[in-house]
Amino acid sequence: MEIWTEKYRPKKLDEIIGQKNVVKRLKQFVKNKNLPHVLFAGPAGIGKTSCALAIAQQLYGDDWSLNFFELNASDERGIDVIRGKIKDFARTMPLGGAPFKIIMLDESDALTREAQQALRRMMEKYTRTCRFILSCNYSSKIIDPIQSRCAVFRFKPIDKEDILMHLSEIAKKEKLKISSDVKINENPVFLAIHDASEGDMRKAINLLQSCSVVEGKITSDTVFEVASYARPSEIKRVVEQAVSGKLVEARNLLFDTMLKYGLSGIDAVKQLQKMVMQLDMPAQKTALAVQKVAECEFRLVEGADPYIQLEALLAGFMLLK
Predict the structure, then answer these.
(1) Which of 90, 121, 165, 209 could staple 130 via S-S, CB 3.0–4.6 A?
(2) CB-based burial label for 292 (10 Å; 0-12, 13-18, 19+)
(3) % of the chain residues with pLDDT over 70
(4) 45 and 149 housed in the same domain
(5) Are residues 209 and 239 in the same domain?
């Protein structure tokens, strides 16, 4: 079965969802066939790689794969790759379309500093025959000399409405059976996918495809089970019981929820943090609760026992009373 994230990947810049300002600027570069070195920065799953592929396909047409070279820098991030594979591709002439080739370095913030230093010289030396597209989650990890050589495009998280609309269109094309026929922005299945994917379009599409395989008729319960994501209402009940002083009940409910959905300690802490911000508490108590969540998360990252730390976190919530 074809992977939907590839099947529904945009082929043109106009098909990119939720990045109007970025697309507007890129379309002018493509129209003039004069692309500078560019840096795409933003969270995962919001269209950075899709933009790069769409640019290549619009510039070169059917020959785009001959003029487009993609490397995932998280796998190959040493200086030898920069001096070897990238250099060999960059110094050859393009084949039709535009007067330059394109090299895309995905997750370029994983490149070592030595590799970035080698890359900055290569970006200058082979400008006539090659353009670089650097994609990263954190632009601060890219050295300043490279950033100054690039036109920086900052991608924003995709709006909730755009994600829900896109999921609805895919569901129609794939003829999926969704449990509810209400409006898209009120559909519990699509809302559950949005909550579980945390705004990551790629994750949302993968989750929809996984749910379609598990059951013929998709429900919100299916989504939460497949995503290993607890229902917000259950997490809310945990926090409310802890804050009201029912520590043992809150602890038992939290651990039962973790076992039911297969949550790790970090997963549980992240969901608790979201729910704390939604509770109707005085600002000072909310601030103290967030501080306790941060301390718990730090200890878990350092290797502390998740169950003991989560018990301590719930106890901290109880003391807020």
Answers:
(1) 90
(2) buried
(3) 95
(4) yes
(5) no
Query: Does 23 share its domain with 131?
Result: yes
Q: Is the dihedral of CA 181, 187, 189, 194 positive or negative?
A: positive
Which of 271, 251, 233 minimizes the C-alpha distance to 314?
251
Distance of alpha carbon 68 from alpha carbon 115, whole angstroms:
21
Closest residue by Cα to residue 271 from 226, 237, 247, 221: 237
In this structure, what CATH number is given to the domain that contains residue 261? 1.20.272.10
pLDDT tens column, 310-321: 999 999 999 987
C-alpha 280/C-alpha 80 separation (Å) is 55
Domain that holds residue 131: 4-154
- Per residue in 239-283, pLDDT (tens digit) is 999 999 999 999 999 999 999 888 899 999 999 998 988 888 888
- 34-70 burial: b if 16+ Cβ within 10 Å, else e: ebebbbbbbeebbbbbbbbbbbbbbbbeeebeebbbb
Relative to beta strand 151-154, strand 130-136 is: unpaired
Tell me the three state secondary structure of residue 90.
helix
Q: Within 13 A of 260's CA, how many CA atoms are on the CB side?
A: 15
Low-confidence ranges of the chain (pLDDT < 70): 1, 73-82, 97, 180-182
Domain count, the chain: 3
Q: Give the single-character DSSP code of 86.
A: I
**128, 154, 180: which is the final residue of a domain?**
154
